[in-house]
Each structure stands twice: as structure tokens, then as C-alpha cells.
Amino acid sequence: MPQSEARGVARHSAIYFLGGLANRSASFLLLPLYLKTLTPTEFGWLSLVLAATEILALGIGLGIGGALVRLIVACEDDDEVGTVIGSAIALFLIPASITLALIWPASQILASYFADTGIAASLFALGMSAAVFSVLFEVLLSVYRGLKKSWWYTFLSTAKSLLFLGLNLLFLLALGWGVSGILLGTFLSMAILCALAILQMVSHYPVSVSQSHMKRLARIGVPIVPGAVMDAVFASLDKFFLAAQVDAAMVGIYALAGRLAQLLRISVAAPFAQIWTVRRLEVETDPDATTPPPVFRSIMVVFLAVLILVSLALCLLAPEIIWVIGRAEYVDAALFLPLILLGLLLYVLKWNFEIGIYAREKTIWISLVSFATVATAIPVYMVLVPAYGAMGAAVAFVLLGTLRAGLTMIVANRISSIVRTFPFTELGVFLVIAASAYFASAYLAGPPVPFEALLLRIGILFCAALLGGAMLFADPHLRLSTIKNFRKRPRK
């Protein structure tokens, strides 16, 4: 029966918001504890381990998560779903087994590279072990995304956070194991949740392995692996250069700004992406669809408005947030947050344009763009970080994010309609409103003390929200009440 597209996207996004919030909430609930118990140097160690293991995770993931969604949306029945699931797990076991066998020598190499920071090899070993199960967990969550089983996604994400929270409180607070306890808690929670998810899937689908499905998963996923690894390298280069050119303490302060920026990702970007990716893939791969329905552009405009408003709120309130949850040594993280949030926005644009590339299964272009970005990034960081420290790293992050999003847009525009329907004008207006509010706050409100300055920043935020909302609803084509219903593409 007919259903409003906007209502469907909003409903699934709300559920995925709960799932994404649950998936990441433990880390943010524990963040004050980390900042109170870990010095900036120790927090820098944790950030370096996570950055290095994320590169590893993307390598061993083989792009299976994205390929899974692509195959599942085209499945005709539960038997085929079970075959896709089994084939994906079998494909993942190949790089996972190799990684587990090489963990200790790889940890020694990484520890020697960062020897000046004082980080131990055992931390990298724990981090890499946890990364293997974290990747498997994300692959399994991709199954629920493809099937639009948002409630199961939310349940597993909640269970993950509860386990992670409990184990970290035990290892960090009760036993005082520091960074080692955080990484051990991640490893155990991921291993337990992977076992639970696999048992649930086996009980509901006739899981089997097909070489043809494994080959198709590899054909779609593997070409993006070099690009994904390059993206992770790009996301980590700022921390690596800071560790080499400054010290681990500055890495910790800079990484805190990145952690705060992730609030935007888990509260707005990630929940929306879960359902948006699936729906756009359905339309882009539908042979009967000539152009995307107008509703998609309207939904994207509303999403961008919310994304930028939340970014502005984080920027304006960052000094108070850091003052409440951390030590005085971390306060400079607020200086880097606006640029890091802008870099995150550029990443969201890149991700949206990549949907068109996925739909045409031309994923090799994603890797080529990432290689070009990293090749440019190394000399840029080599110039800006020694000269300007953490601020130079943040500026480089934005410049390179612009390059990456621009190159992705050019490629996607040649092979799909996703760029031609993107609301660039509205995005520009929202950014002008947010930038004006931020600089007005910096000029009028001053430092976070006294209390009147905080009230003034909140007032400026409220005015920016009113202005952006007025722009949305002034155009009748952007009102959700005018968006017509249309039937979703039926499953074959």
C-alpha cells in the first residue's frame, strides 16, 4: 500500500538513530571518565591505536558491508538472503585469519614507529584483535540494513553498548587498567555480539555458501578496499604527523575535537545514511526509473539543514562541554572543532555522491579518488603541521576533504543522476547562516565565562535555527506536507 517516502525515511532514520546512538553511546558516556582518568598523552595513545587499527579494519573488511547491502536489496527470497549472508562470512574469514596470525609482529613494528610517544606494542595487539571482531560485527549489521530490519539493528547496537560500558567500567574504573582495559573491553564485547548475531541469522535464514556470490561480493567490495584504506590513512594522517612533529599529548587534545565531531555523525549523519543509502540504491538500480522522484531532493535539503544546525550547536557550546567533561588541559580542543566538523560535512557529501558509483558498480573510481587524495595529503601535512601544529592539521583536513568530495562528485556526475539532483544552493545558504552565527558568537560572546556569554551563544544559535527554518518552509516545494506519496519499488 502507498506510503509517504518522507515518512518512511524519517521513521527508519529515527530507529537507526536509536541504533546508532546505542552503538556509539557507550564511548561517549565513557568519554568523561576517559578524560578524567587518562592524561592527554594516554588519550593520545588510545587515539593512535584506534587510528592505526581502523586502517587495518578497512583492509580486512574487503568492502563486504557495502557489497552486502547492494546484493541483499536485490534478493528474491529468504534462501538467497541466506546464501548472501553465508558467502559474506566465508569471504571475511580469509583476511581475518591472516590478520590474527600476524598480529604480534605487526604490533612490534607499529610500536617501534611510534617509539617517541612511549606507546607499548601490547596496546596495538589488543587494538588489532578487537578490530577483527568489530569489522565482522559491522558486516553483520549491514545485513540488517539491507533487509531494513532497523529494530534488530537497534537491539544489537544497544547490546553492544551495554557490554562495552560494563566491561570498561570494570577494567578501567574498578581495576585501573587504563588504555589496555578500554581495548580489552572492546574485544570481548565485539566477540560476544558477533556470536549472538550469527546465531540469530542462522535460525532465521538457510545460511549457505556460494562461490558465485563470494565472487560477486568480492567484485563489488574489493575494488573499494584500496580506497577505503586510503580514506582511513587520510583520516589518520593528521594524528600521525602530530605525533611525529609535536607530541602524544597534542594528539590527545586534537583527537578530543574529533570525538566531539563524532556526536554529529552518530546523531544525524549515520542514522540518515542507513536508510538513505538503501533507498537511493533501490531507485538508482531500478530499470523502470528514469529519474529519482523529487521527494529525494526535498529530504536531502531537510537533512542538510539539521546537520549544519547541530554542527553549529556543537561549535558554540564546545567550551562548556569540554569544561564539564574533561580536564583543563583539553580545553584547546574547542579551537579545532569547527574545521573538523566542516571536514565531516565534506565527508558526508562524498559519501552521498558515492551512492551513484555503487549503483553502477564502478567502485574502482572510489579507490582512485582516495589514492589521489592521500598522494596530495602527505606533502600538504608535511608543510602545514610543522608550521602551524594542530591548527595546520585541521586546515589541511578541510582542504583535502574538499579535494576528495570534489573528485568524487565529478566521477559520480558522469555515471549517475545523484549529483544533478543535489541541492547545492540550499547547502551554500545554510553554510553562510552557520558561519555568520559562529563569527557573531566569537565576536560578541567572547570566552565561556561569564554565564551571560553562554546565554548569548544560545540566543545566536536559536536565531540561526529560525532563519534556516524560515528558508525551508518559505518554499512550498520543501514542505513535507506537500510531498506526494508514491509506491516503493516492490521486492522482486
UniProtKB/TrEMBL annotation:
Signal peptide: none annotated. InterPro entries: Poly_Biosynth_Transport (IPR050833), Polysacc_synth (IPR002797). It is a multi-pass membrane protein. Coiled coil: none annotated. Keywords: Cell membrane, Membrane, Transmembrane, Transmembrane helix. The chain crosses the membrane at residues 14-35, 55-73, 85-107, 119-144, 151-175, 181-205, 301-325, 331-351, 363-384, 390-412, 424-445, 451-474. Its main location: membrane. It is found in: Cell membrane. It comes from the Bacteria. GO terms for cellular component: plasma membrane. This is Membrane protein involved in the export of O-antigen and teichoic acid. It comes from Litoreibacter janthinus.
